[in-house]
Automatic annotation (TrEMBL):
Tree of life domain: Bacteria
Taxonomic source organism: Devosia riboflavina
Lineage: Bacteria, Pseudomonadati, Pseudomonadota, Alphaproteobacteria, Hyphomicrobiales
One annotated GO biological process: dUDP biosynthetic process
Name of this protein: Thymidylate kinase
Annotated EC: 2.7.4.9
Amino acid sequence: MLEAPNRRQARFITFEGGEGVGKSTQVKRLLANLANVSVDAVRTREPGGTPKAEAIRSFILQGRSEAWGAGAEAVLFAAARYDHVTRLIAPNLAKGTWVISDRFCDSTRAYQGLTGGVDSKLIDALEDLALDGHTPDLTIVLDMDPETAFKRVAERAIEDGLALTGDRFEKEELDWHKRLRDSFLDIARNNTDRCVVLSANQAEESLEREIWNTVQSRFPELQTGIPA
Ligand SMILES: Nc1ncnc2c1ncn2[C@@H]1O[C@H](COP(=O)(O)OP(=O)(O)O)[C@@H](O)[C@H]1O
Ligand SMILES: Cc1cn([C@H]2C[C@H](O)[C@@H](COP(=O)(O)OP(=O)(O)O)O2)c(=O)[nH]c1=O
């Protein structure tokens, strides 16, 4: 008897890229597309995803670890990630539920490592410890020039009547964000088996279709259309 898609091997997909490129928007759209083909999936994010990792998130994003430097912050992100992997990601994958994460280990490599100047040996060691073997099956890198991304975020904040305050990393200079963009592209070039770079500078719906096509071609079991 043929198995329904959600009975097959669960997949771990991550979204990466700079600020405001549309990661959260597209994670939600991918979840809806997976639900349409009866695949059980959970949406999560980094830093965070579990109560303890969310506590580390608040600590870092409020700027309380800034004075410690990028190396110590990389260790904090890795501590949050270890909790996230062992308490949420691994158990869900083990029971057959796909996991879709808004940011994961490439953010540490890009922000603290390539852009923040932390030695790649420390980043490699932290990644090895925190992932505990759970390398993503697919990473979608959303790429776009940071000026356009910032305009989007600002326009939306004005529409919603919100003040644009920004967290620790959103406050960095434009040049820093350009280097960050290059860092994500470097990571993708060095991990072509895992990473797919897509232009985020397109309408939400067309980017959603590109992502769904990418996911379906990477995981052909989704194309069978067998109902659960
Ligand atoms: N393709 C798109 N075109 C225009 N605006 C978008 C697009 N995708 C997302 N947005 C808007 O841009 C802002 C940032 O999107 P978001 O998904 O929160 O980005 P991120 O999670 O990468 O920070 C939001 O206001 C969102 O509604
Ligand atoms: C996961 C992770 C995030 N970060 C940064 C990226 C973001 O600036 C911030 C998370 O904030 P968040 O608001 O979730 O990101 P976004 O702006 O994409 O919506 O933490 C790191 O510096 N290192 C990491 O390992």
